[in-house]
Amino acid sequence: MLDKKQVRNVINDVLQKMGEKYASKEAIELVYNTGLVESKYVYLMQKGGNNVARGFWQIEPWTSVDAINNYLAYRPDLMKTVAKAANLDWKYFTDPNEDDWRFILTTNIAAQIAMCRVHYRRVPKKLPKTLDEQANYWKDFYNTAKGAGTPEKFVEMVKKYG
User: Fold this and answer.
1) Smallest Cα–Cα separation from 55: which of 21, 7, 5?
2) Would you say 85 and 18 are in contact if contact means Cβ atoms under 8 Å apart?
């Protein structure tokens, strides 16, 4: 497992580059705990199955392409901010494809953080404040009903490894 303080610092730095409203205490905690639960900050590719989900935040490439095409494309200033925070060429946002994003999400931690935050930004509800609220929010909006994770497992993982 990576050093927790370093991971938090990197998350903070990336989210600060995205702007103050993306770098609240609640956002930093939710992004950190999401990565912790998804990979324990050990795995860069989904274990088992088809290895679709990538990075510490286990984001599927199609999810990033969808976020770009159906969210960021309508918010060009935010798209530019995300590209800059992730240190990515603009072409990955103007013509996104899953093959490029599969590589980006496996190798670029800043892009992983930014896309995790964008994923949560699309949710039309306030960010959770407590661990239990985070667990339910993560299950409802990140892991989804189809995912194997549970709010109880989220809380257990954060208490054990966080």
Assistant:
1) 7
2) yes
The neighbour count for residue 156, using CB atoms within 10 Å, is: 13
CB 7 within 8 A of CB 32: yes
Give pLDDT tens digits for 78-96.
999 999 999 999 999 999 9
Helix (H, G, I), strand (E, B) or coil at 127: coil
Identify the CA nearest to 31 among candidates 160, 158, 145: 158
Look at residue 50 and tell me whether its pLDDT is greater than 70: no
What single DSSP character describes residue 128?
Answer: P
Let me know how long the chain is.
162
pLDDT for the residue 1:
75
- Cβ distance 34 to 50 under 8 Å? no
According to DSSP, residue 89 is labeled -
CA 139 to CA 66: how far, in whole Å?
19
Q: For the chain, what is the mean pLDDT?
A: 94
- Residue spans of alpha helices (H) in the chain: 4-18, 25-39, 61-70, 76-85, 91-94, 98-107, 109-121, 131-138, 151-161
> Could you tell me the pTM of the whole model?
0.95
Q: What is the pLDDT of residues 32-48, one digit of tens each?
A: 999 999 999 999 888 76
Residue 53 CB neighbour total at 10 angstroms = 19
